[in-house]
Design goal:
single chain, about 170 residues, mainly alpha, 2 domains, 3-stranded antiparallel β-sheet, 3 strands, about 10% strand, globular, membrane, Na+/H+ antiporter subunit E, transmembrane, cell membrane
Length: about 170
């Protein structure tokens, strides 16, 4: 079973490379697809590309819910940041917030990092992958309650993504 899992993981990365190749060329004719496959195989031959972890239990409804909440978060944070940018921009304060995630899954942590960085007002500055520790710049942050809200948002996003990919929720961090 490990061989099948490894082949599936490598196939995922090869398909990702092929997709990027097709986007770069802007077309998907036979020559472009075949040359993209050759490039992906060549990249695997000369480097140790990471494998894409194989998700065995994705939950489409939970994933759709996570995407819907992400879309809502984008809308709300855009309005909040836009309001602060137009009304008294000199009074907007930010803060650096450390958050320890509960997951050890690279897929989930990467998705959380991307989700948080794409939202206006938050930016993941650093991730300690070994300890699942995030350093986030959040704004507007006027008091410790706002900083706690940034932490809560990251942990809620992580929880939704854990449910979406079918991974069990880990214990609370120490």
């Amino acid at each position: 079973m490990n061989v099948l899992r490894r082949i599936g993981s490598r196939t995922g990365m090869a398909l990702w490379l092929l997709g990027v190749w097709l986007l770069l060329w802007g077309r998907a004719d036979a020559a472009t697809v075949l040359s993209g496959i050759a490039v992906a195989l060549g990249a695997y031959a000369v480097t140790r590309l990471p494998t894409v972890p194989f998700l065995t239990r994705p939950r489409p409804i939970r994933l759709a819910q996570a995407l819907a909440v992400f879309g809502w978060d984008l809308l709300v944070s855009s309005v909040v940041i836009g309001r602060h940018a137009l009304w008294r921009p000199g009074r907007v304060r930010g803060a650096l917030v450390h958050v320890r995630a509960r997951s050890r899954s690279d897929v989930v942590l990467l998705a959380v990092t991307t989700s948080m960085s794409l939202r206006p007002g938050t930016l993941v500055l650093d991730v300690d992958w070994e300890r699942s520790l995030f350093l986030i710049h959040g704004m507007p942050v006027a008091d410790p309650a706002d900083a706690e809200s940034v932490k809560h948002d990251l942990l809620a996003t992580e929880r939704r993504l854990l449910r979406a990919v079918g991974e069990p929720e880990p214990e609370e961090p120490a």
